[in-house]
Amino acid sequence: MKNDPEVAVEQKDPDLDVALMLAFRDGDEAAFDRLFRRWAGPLLRYLERMLGDGAVAEELVQETFFRVHRARARYESRARFSTWLYRIATNLAINELKRPRRRHVHQEEEKSDLRAVGPGAEEAVDTKRQGVDVGRELEKLPERQRMALWLSAAEGHSYAEVALILETTEKSVKALVHRGRAALVARMGDCAGSMASMPRRGTV
Length: 204
Description:
Elements: H1 5-10, H2 14-25, H3 29-51, H4 54-70, H5 81-97, H6 114-117, H7 121-140, H8 143-154, H9 159-166, H10 170-188, H11 193-196
Helix pairs in contact: 2-3, 3-4, 3-5, 4-5, 5-9, 7-10, 8-9, 8-10, 9-10
């Protein structure tokens, strides 16, 4: 599910998503395949971060698009396609998180002999470890804080769109994001700076 550079450019045009979904609703199966290629990668990244389990995330991506396929006759273009898609995926993720299952075991950090790698290696490994630590701290947040923060900061959804995805109000989303950012910064300090200062599309 690697991102195609051309796909990444196309994702900036939400009208294209709507046009593709409407074409699929009218019977164009190729339009559905194109939607899958455009959104499966970003959706997988989101679900992996929410669930901490790549295999389950893969299954939920498939289930999300199965539900899109099944609901095509009822699709209406009143909201962005991506908002509708992430709402389906988020509901599936919430249901999955409610299931009793063992907490995902994080992969061990790659061991490295810094003295043998050469100049600059220590800084590179330290940066990688900091990224892993931020991910671990993000997973410790309450699920709705984690989802609101990731959807707005990493996926670029506006607060209004996150509110639709989480089926809540913009005011609630702002509070969730604020608390999530504050918790990360309190725990991680500068290591959480990239998440805490990441620009958000559609903010005021």
